[in-house]
Amino acid sequence: MIGLVTGSLPFAGLPTNPAQTVLGHIEGMTIEGIDIVTQATPVSYAQLPGLLTDLVLKYRPAFVLALGLALGAPVVRVEKVAINAADFGVADNEGAKPEGGVRFAQNDAAARLATWDAEAVVAAILEADVPARVSYHAGTHLCNLTLFTYLAALAGAGLDAPCGFLHLPYLPDQIVWMMRHRAGTGEAPGLSFDQPSMALETQVNAVKAALGALARQARARP
What is the CATH number of domain 2-220? Predict the structure, then answer.
């Protein structure tokens, strides 16, 4: 049994992304008898849907966890809903910047609900002494597209697997980098430099707690 975990590569002019960095701390783990496989994913509106669908077909995972960076988030956000709309405040790494809530899956539903028990995931993260909350809006950038695509791909493959998205805060070193580089250029938007951040070790603990909750949910399904 495989637990698939993916995390976004750096974007918005930043040199790192906790969603990618965390992957190196969980690759190869086995949780509740489920082997964790990780992959970093491109910040590409064009490439992402096909890549994620291929990963689901390749691994037929027992669960899926996607990770992304929420600019300015103070706590870990456990996403419950993905909408079929794209409106990028920041271009992707190939320069794509859809606007106006463009529908990216023309023949699909207006929204999809994450198939994990988000409240149980929040409880597990809090038990690990990491602040987290349920969120009902994964945004309109690639994090939202990722969750929607995974849910559609799992349904299309006939897999009843818990799937969800964790939005992670900035890392402290990202804030330091922005302070040093005075990234007031629009690459990392909306910045004063009084931004919340969360240590990498804390974020790794949150992700491990979420994986434990997901593995238990997967094991409980027929």
Answer: 3.40.630.20
